[in-house]
Specification:
The chain is of the alpha/beta class and about 550 residues long. It has 3 domains: about 100-255, Beta Polymerase, domain 2, CATH 3.30.460; about 265-415, Rossmann fold; about 450-550, no CATH class. Helix content is about 50%, strand content about 15%. It is built from 20 helices and 16 strands. It has a 6-stranded parallel beta sheet with strand order 13-12-11-14-15-16. It has a 4-stranded antiparallel beta sheet with strand order 8-9-7-10, sandwiched between helices. The protein has a two-stranded parallel sheet with strand order 1-6. Helix 12 links the parallel strand 12 (about 310-315) and strand 13. Helix 7 (about 195-205) crosses helix 9. The radius of gyration is 30 Å and the shape is elongated. The protein starts with 5 loop residues before the first helix and ends with a helix. This is Glutamyl-tRNA reductase. Belongs to the glutamyl-tRNA reductase family. It holds the Pfam family GlutR_N. It comes from Capsicum baccatum (Peruvian pepper).
Length: about 550
Amino acid sequence: MAIPTAFSLAKLESLSSSAAVATPAVSIGLFCNPGWVRRVGIQKGLGNSGIRCEVAASDVLDQSQSSGGNVTSSSSSSSSSLSALEQLKTSAADRYTKEKSSIVVIGLSIHTTPVEVREKLAIPEAEWPRAIGELCNLNHIEEAAVLSTCNRMEIYVVALSQHRGVKEVTEWMSKTSGVPVTEICKHRFLLYNNDATQHIFEVSAGLDSLVLGEGQILAQVKQVVKVGQGVTGFGRNISGLFKHAITVGKRVRTETNIAAGAVSVSSAAVELALMKLPESCHATARMLVIGAGKMGKLVIKHLVAKGCTKMVVVNRSEDRVSAIREEMKDVEIIYKPLTEMLNSAAEADVIFTSTASETLLFNKENVLDLPPVASSVGGLRLFVDISVPRNVGACVNELENARVYNVDDLKEVVAANKEDRLRKAMEAQAIISEESKQFEAWRDSLETVPTIKKLRAYAERIRVAELDKCMSKMGDDISKKTKKAVDDLSRGIVNKLLHGPMQHLRCDGSDSRTLSETLENMHALNRMFSLETDISVLEQKIRAKVEQTQK
């Protein structure tokens, strides 16, 4: 009985091992991993765990393969056992090579993960292209995107195998962040295909935000597309998913009133600070904003909206602060450089931090040295830190005269009007459901692309061969004009003949044709024109991955 190739065996267990190691026997193990296939209701706190069992063959070969490729048994019982093993192994290989690539999201959000973990996993926007490249170098990852904000760290991939892809991405996250795999698995959520599509649509629409309907997340989703343009690995499936998510986000905000009265993280931070201050000092408390980026600018705007007429802004450069000052000419905005940060903090009652610094700006020691604040403002210096990674150490809370609040503490502000926000979310869900079906129809239509390419190539080979025969019969003295006319004629005939079959291979929602009908047409054309190849499209991709790792 013939042993399968080293490649077939290796891809069952791991594509990272491309060379077979000779050992006395082929071992096959059965393993079950809970939680690989689960849909988590993130905002509702629901979780359904499933168990997925796979058959794994080791990537080692019998020593006898090198000498003849056959295994001989001295007893019938041994031969029968080997036969059963061989069937099991072949079945697993067949299942694997026919597995369809999946869209997968591996995520950690404010709903599932504390900020102490999220900040370690956060990836700065400038590092997204590098991250996409590294993810796509993994054996089972074909496309990738990173969505990293103060409230979430989510990685979207097209995986050639679901559980192998998840395993590789999780290990990559652990390696790049220093967070153990067990800790990541404790907090992560995994969503596949339709669930992953629905999730990013909900995210873009603001349904998964801490503040329902907030607009900043849509801008962040747009930024993923902007950064991903031209990056190898930000491919057709993932880019199509995020572009469609932007469309959904815009449509939800246009057709529903979900954004009416919605607040952002920045406005929630201002609300939280005012909740903690005595009401009598709202207009007189000394405000300091550290960081004049998008979040910092929004903090300033919301402070002004609440009646603040004077504040200090610390930033690396004065340009942004000057621009903000031009917009709000009726407000006294005093610029201070970063070197003056501690001196400015000493004169402030409330300090907002929103910088991209990866190191702490305030710790227990330097806050301890600050002078106490007046009893009229509560006797506590308030730090409202909306940065991820955090700018203010949690240890500051150990001091008697200071309190620190981070993005996770904003839940206290947005807990109000929960019923009203959920009613708005229901209106948006109908739109998301409709858009999800459209995206899935588009993605399903991609399954026929290989057949379309093969049919065109088949027709082109026939056209070129017959054209060469025709030209040889016409002789060498024909003019270029005649040659072009004959060539154009042959192309026109082929295109008209292919038009009907091509139309029946498209399933993009523009007609009443169902996916099943389209796939039936695809299989029929494959049979009629012998377009089927010995190696599936997925297996070709897997082979390419293995060859890439060998270089």
